Amino acid sequence: MNSDQPTSQQSSSKVNSSTALPLSDKVQEALAVAKRGVDELLIESEFAQKLARSEKSGQPLRIKLGLDPTAPDLHLGHTVVLNKMRQLQNLGHNVIFLIGDFTSMIGDPSGRNATRPPLTREQIELNAKTYFAQASLVLDPERTEIRYNSEWCDPLGSRGMIQLASRYTVARMMERDDFTKRFKEGTPISVHEFLYPLMQGYDSVALKSDLELGGTDQKFNLLVGRELQKDYGQEPQCILTMPLLEGLDGVEKMSKSKNNYIGITEPANTMFAKVMSISDVMMWRYYELLSFRSMTDIAGFKVEVEGGKNPRDIKVALAQEIVARFHSQQAAEDALADFVNRSKGGIPDDVPEVSLSGAPLGIGQLLKQTNLCASTSEALRMVEQGGVRIDGAVISDKGLKLEAGQFVIQVGKRKFARVTLS
């Protein structure tokens, strides 16, 4: 068994302390940092006492974030929780980046109306390789503990799994909204899906977590961890849920499948332009959830905008901060220059080059073959809307056919291709 394997006798600290500790100014400041931008902090008074005990004893808190490697790439929506981890890390606490290589094989049923196909071990291992490297663009890798939940889940075996399952009732599981909805609708619920929140909760027992972070969709799972810790004689963790970040459309949550995302490994110029494309209203939410600037600084920006300053200038500062975090300060400066050049009708330096044959080629086919549009119908619609330029000139003829030659094609504000047509 792993040395972290819990027993019912183990306890990270006394579950109840006889007297509440006073909250120093430092603890109050730490609490304010923890609460910035959160959806919920449960239970705040308990977490305040954990902070006070930590200050008194000099023992850092153990703060856990678990991510299942279900896809190889992270986007800014994922970093909302990672940013909070970094803030707590900067306060001197121990952060644990937990890769759910075991739980990924079950599949998280959160928010789903159908059974999620479990990933294979090969898929999980492939995705996990890139996860921490990308997360390290936000977290301080030198001060981050990396764990895999297969460390303690695999040794459980079937006997241990049955014993763990005996600690939670079906009635408690059915309190979960998505399970209740599926049951009422007659949609199948596989037995293994009940194991997911149990195993995630058991992670908190194994790691003796003081605080666990997650998105709002993870609240049920985090609460299971809290209850299991009590059952194992540990002080229950507090839980902190972060909002789900809206994507570029300002409506749906950020998602690659909805194509409204900003990937953290995207080119600097693309990342900068995407940040600049969000609305002026949505900009403040991005500041609150993604920026490392203080709330005082952000409040100052709002006053400047109310006083007549162009919100575009404030958005530029946000775009540069985000690009610098994932690339470099020089890349942020270059991205700004590229954005300004494009806004003046200039052509960026990093235009992809494409060679095509078949001249004369219709504009619809050309835009499709260069991957500037997904289909000829979309291409013709963009032409009709005045969203297509060739060598800087707007094209309005949907029947246009291009002869052999070289052209710079632009679709919308951000898509370019240098085409050689033969």
Description:
The protein is built from 17 helices and 13 strands. The chain has 422 residues and is α/β, with parallel strands linked by helices. It folds into three domains: 25-242, HUPs (Rossmann fold, 3-Layer(aba) Sandwich); 268-343, Tyrosyl-Transfer RNA Synthetase, CATH 1.10.240; 353-421, RNA-binding S4 domain (Structural Genomics Hypothetical 15.5 Kd Protein In mrcA-pckA Intergenic Region, Chain A, Roll), CATH 3.10.290. The strands form three sheets. It has a six-stranded mixed β-sheet with strand order 1-6-5-2-3-4, sandwiched between helices. Strands 7-13-12-9-10 form a five-stranded mixed β-sheet. Strands 8-11 form a two-stranded antiparallel sheet. α11 runs antiparallel to α14, α11 crosses α15 (329-343) and α12 (280-290) runs parallel beside α14. Homodimer. Residues 361-422 form the RNA-binding S4 domain. This is Tyrosine--tRNA ligase. It is an enzyme of class 6 (ligase). Residues 8-18 have a biased composition (Low complexity).
